[in-house]
Write a structure and sequence with these properties.
The protein has about 800 residues and is of the alpha/beta class. The chain starts with 7 loop residues before the first helix and ends with a strand. Helix 18 crosses helix 19, helix 19 crosses helix 22 and helix 21 packs antiparallel against helix 22. About 35% of the residues lie in helices and about 20% in strands. The strands form 11 sheets. Strands 10, 11, 12, 13, 14, 15 and 18 form a 7-stranded mixed sheet that branches. Bound molecules: zinc ion. Zinc ion binds next to loops.
């Protein structure tokens, strides 16, 4: 049997043209009777060139969008551009290009490339963040936050990237280096705009519990928010009237304190040097100089447990009144807590290591039941603790805080979000200053507050907007003589914190979105993106949405229901693709040679899409997918007018079940295997009923949208294969599992997966597989069990 020629170029361009003229993917936002499904992919930055990572980000979720449509859902699958940002401005500086033109040219190129991959985006919903009709609403939403005291201006120590010549948010600094360019950041003291993310820390944390996200994504956010409950305690310093304040999560170990440590950057260190209290000044200064060269990560690792005692001063223990030494050591970070800690070597590993290295005493103050004294014990009976000895350590906590005049407190790692940037190509901050220098939000009648164009791009470290005469004149004309404009622009993460709301009604001139439609389409059913956004974009967008929810501007408290982080495509050598390594795969070469469908299926097959793994690109991989598609095409020659055979029909309905189930969980790789197995069986038949072939094509359609559409037409079928109904499936459905959060005394200790109808006893026995729970249950039966099937089991012990 001769293989028919599979002219992918002709097929793909013809089919794409047909989809375009038929407006096949335009979704009816308000009137469709079909159930809405909002599938969101992170919109791209218009870098101008679609690399393989873009294909992976867009072409693969497209499989799911196509399948959902065939399954009767009204699917919103939009795309747009996160179009403000540094590269445009850098092109302006380096090559004298207009940043706007550079951006718009790139978007044109990328639109063509996105169409080439056969992605079924609804282009009528396109959102472009650098367009005044979009950023007008970014500005307006900011003014709402400002009126609600969620935006403020403050003088603060901030991180500055000397290469990008702008401040950065904490989230944009990785271990002391700029997250985008890798330059070591500097500290600067500047007046900047902030959003009060810290006010939402608890809600950002608590509401995670209800989200059906993978535990590793939730854990990353929890760690970033970094809530710790403890107390502020104070130590009197010998040479000073003032007190040294420490934050501790273990106030019940106060009697075990044998020394205190301050961070090298703690303001008290310089004060003590200046007033002559410290006698080993030279040694201290040397240590400060050494530490300032280290990154935060090197410091927190601090393998050698370096530190220097401050000679000449001591601290008084607040409970025992003993005199104890004070150290500076860089394992204590200035920005965490108060920048000073009480050290309890008997019950803290880092303090233990430090104490051993510096020959400091250790004093055990907690004993587990029985007579064994174990190091690092967390809870038990207090010993060597004055009048508290003999009491349960957890029960005594509050009394001990009171006894030493401490105060209960909660600390977060999450800081307020620094949103001003000293760059040009961004959304202007809609603020003007009166002649006294007080800030005022610009009213909606003057929005959009447009980005000026008479700009000097030479990077000076000052905001380029300050060079615009037009902006100053505009401000004075509207607000009066002596008024001045804010010259910083927003961090682009502000633009992307609400773009998914605009997709719902992107042409609305009266407001940022549409109330009725938002009720119908929010929260977003599934959001697919890169794992690098877990503690940046994903956290910012959740904060922004919650703030809008409190302002009654959006109907849901969370923007996204499911979140899937995709994996990473690596070079053929298994390393991250980079030009310097020469291992960059250019998708265009493969599309040219084997076709877009072959590239799509290969990417679907390369590994499970809902796991943040990394998959090396196999140079023969696309070729073998091409062969698979050729066989699908050739199978048409076996089609005759015979009635469908029962065996074939059964096979296809089983395949439909498998493909549907796997694709729903974004396991496109196993879905493709199921299609391959089915093809082999169909090929084994002498002849094939047309209905069976059409059914197989429908199952393949989301994966290979062009070829299947072409054969569909060739077989004289009506309309588009992508508008047909998904074939009936016959798999026996396994009961659906839900995630049950396991708590002990209200504290989360893990989670288990159980069918929703599981009874309490079974749930308890499953929960006791968690080591922490097993340990707790050893002490006795729970007093009470609160069990909500499918959600939570809380053991009161
Ligand atoms: Zn940088």
């Amino acid at each position: 049997m001769a293989t028919r020629s599979y002219d992918h170029k002709h097929i793909e361009t013809t089919v794409q043209e047909k989809w375009r003229t038929d407006n096949l993917y335009q979704v009816d936002i308000s009137d469709s009777p079909d159930a809405p499904y909002y599938l969101l992919v992170e919109f791209p930055y218009p870098s101008g060139d679609l690399h393989i990572g873009h294909w992976y980000a867009f072409a693969i979720p497209d499989i799911y969008a196509r399948m959902l449509r065939m399954q009767g859902k009204n699917v919103l699958f939009p795309i747009g551009f996160d179009a403000f940002g540094l590269p445009a401005e850098n092109a302006a500086i380096k090559r004298g290009l207009d940043p706007k033109k550079w951006t718009y040219d790139n978007m044109d190129t990328m639109r063509t490339q996105l169409r080439r991959m056969g992605a079924s985006f609804d282009w009528s919903k396109e959102v472009i963040t650098c367009q005044p009709d979009y950023y007008k609403w970014t500005q307006w939403l900011f003014t709402k936050l400002y009126e609600d005291d969620l935006a403020y201006r403050a003088n603060a120590s901030v991180k500055w990237c000397p290469k990008d010549k702008t401040v950065l948010a904490n989230e944009q600094v990785a271990n002391g280096f700029c997250e985008r360019c890798g330059t070591e950041v500097e500290e600067r003291y500047l007046t900047q705009w902030f959003l009060r993310t810290s006010k939402y820390a608890d809600r950002l944390l608590e509401d995670l519990d209800e989200l059906p996200w993978k535990e590793d994504i939730k854990e990353a956010q929890r760690a970033w928010i970094g809530k710790s409950v403890g107390a502020y305690l104070t130590f009197k310093i010998s040479s000073q009237k003032e007190l040294l304040r420490v934050f501790t999560t273990r106030p019940e170990t106060i009697f075990g304190v044998t020394y205190v440590v301050v961070a090298p950057e703690h303001p008290i260190v310089n004060k003590l040097i200046d007033d002559g209290s410290i006698s080993n000044t030279k040694e201290v200064r040397e240590y400060l100089a050494k530490t300032s060269k280290k990154t935060e990560r090197e410091r927190s690792e601090n393998k050698d447990k370096t530190g220097v005692v401050l000679d000449g001063i001591t601290a008084t223990h607040p409970a025992t009144k003993e005199i104890i030494p004070i150290y500076i050591a860089d394992y204590v970070i200035g920005s965490y807590g108060t920048g000073a800690v009480m050290a309890v070597p008997a019950h803290d590993e880092r303090d233990f290591d430090f104490a051993r290295a510096h020959n400091l005493p250790s004093k055990t103050v907690i004993k587990v039941t029985g007579d064994d004294i174990l190091p690092m014990t967390h809870a038990g009976k207090l010993v060597n603790s004055g009048s508290f000895s003999g009491r349960d350590s957890m029960d005594a906590q509050m009394d001990m805080i009171d006894a030493v005049g401490g105060e209960r407190a909660t600390q977060y790692r999450l800081r307020d979000w620094l949103i001003s940037r000293q760059r040009y190509w961004g959304c202007p901050i809609p603020i003007v200053y009166d002649p006294q220098g007080n800030p005022h939000a610009i009213g909606i009648e003057h929005l959009p507050w447009t980005l000026p164009t008479d700009i000097d791009f030479a990077p000076t470290g000052k905001s380029p907007l300050a060079t615009s005469l037009e902006l100053l004149e505009r401000t004075e004309r509207i607000f009066g003589e002596g008024w001045t404009p804010e010259c910083d622009t927003f961090d682009t993460f502000v633009d992307s914190s609400w773009y998914f709301l605009r997709y719902i009604d992107c042409k609305n001139l009266d407001t940022f979105s549409n109330d009725i439609a938002m009720k119908k389409w929010l929260p977003i059913n599934r959001y697919s993106g890169g794992s690098e956004h877990t503690t940046m974009h994903l956290l910012y967008a959740r904060f922004f949405h919650k703030a809008l929810y409190d302002l009654k501007l959006v109907p849901t408290k969370e923007p996204f229901n499911e979140r899937f982080n995709r994996g990473l495509i690596m070079g053929p050598d298994g390393h991250k693709m980079s030009k310097s390594k020469g291992n960059v795969v250019n998708p265009d070469d493969f599309v040219e040679k084997y076709g877009a469908d072959a590239v799509r299926i290969y990417l679907a097959f390369i590994g499970p899409y809902n796991e943040a793994g990394s998959y090396p690109w196999n140079l023969d991989g696309v070729k073998s997918m091409r062969r698979f598609l050729e066989r699908v095409y050739a199978l048409e020659e076996k089609v005759t007018d015979i009635p469908a055979q029962e065996e074939t029909t059964n096979l296809l309905s089983q395949t439909a079940g498998k493909v549907s189930e796997d694709a729903t969980r974004f396991k496109f790789n196993t879905a493709v295997s199921a299609l391959m197995i089915a093809l082999r069986t169909l090929e084994g038949n002498e002849s094939l009923a047309k209905d069976s072939y059409l059914t197989f094509l429908k199952l393949l359609a989301p994966f290979a949208p062009h070829l299947t559409e072409h054969i569909w037409e060739h077989l004289n079928q009506e309309g588009s294969i992508h508008s047909t109904q998904w074939p009936k499936s016959s798999t026996v459905q396994e009961p659906e599992l839900s995630t049950v959060v396991v708590q002990i005394n209200g504290k989360r200790r893990g989670e288990i997966s159980l069918p929703a109808n599981t009874d309490e006893n079974t749930a308890l026995s499953n929960a006791s597989n968690i080591p922490f729970v097993a340990e707790a249950l050893k002490k006795g039966k729970p007093k009470r069990i609160i069990y909500v099937p499918g959600r939570i089991i809380n053991l009161v012990i």
